[in-house]
Amino acid sequence: MVGRMEKAIFLVLILEIFFVATATTEETCKSEREIEEQCGPHTYKTVKPMLDYFRQIRNELELSEFKEKQLSELNSNLMDKYHEIVKLHEKVIKEASLIDQYKNQIQSKENELQLYKEKVDKLESDIELQKNTINGLTPNSKLFEHFDKCKEKLVVESKNLEICEVQLKKLNSSVIEKDENISGYNAKIQNVTENLKKIEVQFDESQTKLKNKEKDQQVCQGEVDKLNEALQNSIPSSCVPFGQYPGYREIKVLGSGIFSVLCDSQLAGPGWIVIQQRVGGNESFDRDWATYRKGFGSFDKDFFLGLENIYRLTNSQRYELYMHLVFLNGTSKYARYDDFKISDESQGYVLRSLGEFKGSVNVDAMRYSQNRKFTTLDRDNDVASSNCAVAYKSGWWHGDCFNSNFNALYGIDFFWYRKFNPLKVAKMLIRPNKLI
Ligand SMILES: *[C@@H]1O[C@H](CO)[C@@H](O)[C@H](O)[C@H]1NC(C)=O
Ligand SMILES: *[C@@H]1O[C@H](CO)[C@@H](O)[C@H](O)[C@H]1NC(C)=O
Ligand SMILES: *[C@@H]1O[C@H](CO)[C@@H](O)[C@H](O)[C@H]1NC(C)=O
Ligand SMILES: *[C@@H]1O[C@H](CO)[C@@H](O)[C@H](O)[C@H]1NC(C)=O
Ligand SMILES: *[C@@H]1O[C@H](CO)[C@@H](O)[C@H](O)[C@H]1NC(C)=O
User: Which keywords belong to this entry (predicted)?
Assistant: First the structure.
């Protein structure tokens, strides 16, 4: 016990020293200096190594205690840490599995991403392609010009379009109007069709009536034919029946058929056929045989009826001849023969007969021509050395020419008996002589 006491006292002393010695350096130094001052330089110098030693031990002691404490703390810490680590480990395992899951997810996402990437690449290449195409399309100045022209055209076209629209509207309205008109016409057509049907019915009725009428007409025609025949038969053979109605008439004679004549009722009573006329016309009488045969001229001026018709008439019955003449001084005379007849063509239309002469003229000048054939410029039947028709430019019953020639040229050769009695008008008329 005592020892312990002593030790404890000692220890306290040491501890005190220790505490002083182990105070902070300044304190230490201060304390040391205090101690040195208190203890004096001699004391201090002897005690100092021991103090240093205590100090060192104390430090080490403190350090080991501290360390022990630290160690236990560390231990408990370590334990904690261990538990923590265990926990962490569990956590880590959990996390690891989670991480696996995530990893899988990430993998699948990555795959998707890859796909997307591929798609994106594809799109990018497409875009690149488009870009190239677009670059290829980069407009140059020509294109711009073209574009401008197009624009102008477009303006013109749009104007045209406007015009077109207006026209279209007009057309439309006219089409509508036409439609209306068409329906109007349709109504009319229907009406017309109905009317047509009515008319058809009427037509049928008319047709049957017409057929009946046709029968009637046939009967009628028969009557008309009979009448016509009678009329034909009633056409006269001279101007006698037209005595009160002179002028241009038709007569009929055997061999010549029906032909037109000029009838006269003024010069010598009714019923005369004018066979020759000179009234100052300019008709040429210098004609060939065929023309004299057929006749020529016009009834209102100078004319010759025609040898064939004269032949047919004068041979159908007995005819008288009336020769009318007007001298240049205006005096009218006549010569009249009661049996006028000429032969047929084969005998040269010979002036076969004149009959008995009567007249106001002083000479029977026509007698010279009796029994003379007719002579024309192309048929010389006269007794002269040359052709009298040619010499006197006229067809006539020439002998050694004539005493009177009603067909002669107006002038010195147109006379009644020699050149002393020149004429301006001459006519020859015939009429059946049984009336006399
Ligand atoms: C024509 O006119 C009719 C009636 O007014 C209308 O319905 C139609 O749209 C017109 N058409 C045009 C091309 O204008
Ligand atoms: C429609 O008919 C009327 C009278 O009949 C006529 O004046 C008009 O011109 C017609 N319109 C057309 C487009 O034919
Ligand atoms: C039909 O025709 C008749 C006879 O021609 C006429 O009187 C009538 O007005 C017409 N009707 C129409 C709708 O045209
Ligand atoms: C007769 O005169 C008319 C006109 O006066 C003339 O046309 C015609 O040719 C003449 N005829 C002859 C035959 O000279
Ligand atoms: C007219 O002339 C004819 C023939 O020359 C003659 O016979 C007649 O006496 C004349 N008449 C008159 C009135 O001079």
Answer: Coiled coil, Signal
Element (H, E) at 326: strand 319-327
Calculate ∠ Cα 414-307-245, nearest 5°: 85
Q: Which two tokens stand for residue 276?
A: 């020759």
Ligand minimally distant from the alpha carbon of residue 298: 4
Please name the amino acid found at residue 50: M
Q: Is 309 in the pocket of ligand 5 (CB under 6 A)?
A: no
Q: What is the whole-number distance in angstroms between the Cα of residue 331 and the centre of ligand 5?
A: 6
Which residue's alpha carbon is nearest to atom 13 within ligand 2?
A: 178
Residue bearing the CA closest to ligand 2, atom 6: 181
Q: Give the tens place of pLDDT for each residue, 286-342.
A: 999 999 999 999 999 999 999 999 999 999 999 999 999 999 999 999 999 999 999
Longest distance between any two alpha carbons in the chain, whole Å: 247
Tokens coding 434: 């049984």
Write the DSSP string, 327-352: ETTS-EEEEEEEEEB---GGGT----
Cβ–ligand 2 distance for 174 under 6 Å, the answer yes
**Stretch among 67-81, 175-189, 255-269 having the lowest mean pLDDT:** 67-81
What is the distance in angstroms between the CA of the first residue and the CA of the last residue of the chain? Answer: 239
Nearest alpha carbon, ligand 3 atom 11? 191
